[in-house]
Amino acid sequence: MTIKAAVVGATGYAGAELVRLLACHPNVEITGLSSTSFAGQTIDEIYPSFKKCALPVLTDMDTAIAGAD
């Protein structure tokens, strides 16, 4: 079973660590990432270590959590 997850505040320290952990988890699909400051950008523009990950574009919180479980 795959859990659809969203991370609110994905570009902060704790949020980025959570994205890193969830991106490697075999039973999690990240469906949304939110950031007030960087909405419209990709997380790998802020943190280059995410270049190899297929992650959604950063959006506002309501949009990010819409597709999550």
How would you characterize this protein structure?
The protein is of the alpha/beta class. The chain is 29% helix and 20% strand. The chain contains 3 helices and 3 strands. It has helices at residues 13-23, 43-46, 61-65, and strands at residues 3-7, 28-34, 58-59. A 3-stranded parallel sheet has the order 1-2-3. The chain is globular and about 35 Å long. The termini are close together. The mean pLDDT is 96.
How does the SSE layout of this entry go?
Layout: E1 3-7, H1 13-23, E2 28-34, H2 43-46, E3 58-59, H3 61-65
Parallel strand pairs: 1-2, 2-3
Q: Going across the biggest sheet, name each strand in turn.
A: 1-2-3
Helix content: 25-40%
Mean pLDDT: 96
Rounded Rg: 11 Å
Q: How many beta-strand segments?
A: 3
Query: Termini, distance in Å?
Result: 12 Å
Principal-axes geometry comes out as: globular
Proportion of beta-strand residues: 15-25%
Instruction: Provide the low-confidence segments as ranges.
Output: none
- Secondary-structure element series: EHEHEH
Label the structural class. Answer: alpha/beta
Q: For the report, how would you describe the main beta sheet? A: 3 strands, parallel
Provide a count of the helices. 3
Features:
69 residues, alpha/beta, three-stranded parallel β-sheet, 3 strands, globular
Short description:
The chain is an alpha/beta fold. The chain is 29% helix and 20% strand. Strand 1, helix 1 (13-23) and strand 2 (28-34) form a beta-alpha-beta unit.
